[in-house]
Design a protein that fits this description.
Blueprint (H helix, E strand, L loop, with lengths): L5 H21 L3 H26 L3 H31 L13
Helix pairs in contact: 1-2, 2-3
């Protein structure tokens, strides 16, 4: 059994990013779209850590920790906004939120 190389991590990252991108482009449920955006953010984190491992520096891991902190704040604010919007519209369908432009 071989060791994991940077290519393995980049393939995993690309697969996660594509899954997240397809979820954002095809789904209408705002909660699923939000989770797919988080999945794409984590795919970028895997890439940063893979390149940090490749170059034997801590820069990528530092950026990844920073992105995790930003993602936690985004999750709190994003879920609060989604909850407020779903209470007003009584739905989590992304097409229904166009009525809020008034």
């Amino acid at each position: 059994m071989g060791t994991l190389t940077t290519n393995h991590f980049l393939f995993l990252s690309a697969a996660l990013f594509i899954i997240g991108m397809m979820g954002v482009l095809t789904r209408r449920n705002i909660l699923i779209i939000f989770m797919c955006v988080e999945l794409m953010t984590n795919a970028v984190n895997v890439t940063l850590v893979a390149f940090a491992r490749e170059t034997n520096t801590l820069y990528g891991e530092g950026f990844a920790v920073f992105i995790i902190a930003i993602a936690a704040a985004e999750a709190a604010v994003g879920l609060a906004i989604i909850l407020a919007l779903s209470r007003r519209v009584a739905s989590v369908d992304a097409d229904e939120f166009n009525a809020l432009r008034d």
